[in-house]
C-alpha cells in the first residue's frame, strides 16, 4: 500500500509550493487522504463509512431512535432505513421497540456488531496513523485538539441544511455564462 501522505515536500509536484499556504487546499488534501484510507478500512462493512458511523452510534447507545440517528448523521431517513436493513441482515445491529414509546425503534449493536466494531476501530486507527505519520506524537495531539476546537466551534455555525441548499449557495457564487446556451438559442 503506497503512503497517503508524501514523506517530504521535495517529492511533491511544483504546484504544491504555490498552494502550501492555502487553508482550503491543505484541508482538502488531508481530508481526501483520510477519506480514502477510512473507506478502505471499512469497505467490507455494509454501508461503508456510513455503516461504520451507524454501528458505532448503536454500540455507544448515543441516539434514542432511528430518526434521531438519521438526523445526527445527516442521512435522509429513507436512506437510513436501507442502511439499517443491510446492517440488520448482516446481524450487526437490531432494531428494538423503545420501552417508553413502542412506536419508536432503538438501534442496538449485536455481539457480532460490537466485535466487528473493535476490528474496524483498529483499522481506522491505523489509517489515521498513516495520514498523521508526518507529525510527531505531540504534534498529533496538538493537531487533534486544534481540529476538535475548530470542529466544535464551526458546527453551530452549520453548513446548509441539505445538499440542495449547498448546491444553491455554490451555484450563486459561480460566474454566469456570458453567452446563452445552445438550448436557449434554439427556442
Overall body shape: elongated
Q: What's the CATH topology name of the domain at 46-131?
A: Arc Repressor Mutant, subunit A
**Number of beta strands:** 2
Provide the structure class: mainly alpha
- For the record, the CATH architecture of the domain at 46-131 stands as Orthogonal Bundle
Walk across the major sheet and give the strand order. 1-2
Helix/strand order: HHHHHEEHHHH
Overall CATH class of the domain at 46-131: Mainly Alpha
- Through-space gap between termini: 54 Å
Strand content: 5-15%
Helices, by number, come to 9
CATH superfamily of the domain at 46-131: Winged helix-like DNA-binding domain superfamily/Winged helix DNA-binding domain
| Helix amount | 55-70%
Mean pLDDT: 80
> Which sheet architecture does the biggest sheet show?
2 strands, antiparallel
Radius of gyration: 21 Å
List the uncertain runs. 169-187
